[in-house]
Model the fold of this input.
Amino acid sequence: MDKFEFDFSNKLNEGFIGTFGITLKQLMKKMFGGQQVPILVKGTPREIRAFAKAMIREKDYYTVYKKYGLDNPKTYRSKYRLKRAIYDFERKTGMKWPLKFR
Done:
């Protein structure tokens, strides 16, 4: 089983920045597939909470989008919550959220 590790105290490291998006995409694929994946997140409490919230909102948006489609009000609300979580993540960590959505 793969173990995913994110260390936001190391975010100025080019290696971390380069692999952050790739690792996050792999993690999301496993999560959307229903697998339980061990995750280790290091950083300040604010960074960890912002990361967790953005991950939860990504999964929520994906679930609502799959169930109701893009034109449903529930999907719009979920997309707004995701955008807000991404904004908070970027503001609190100083990093860009690497995943794009519709």
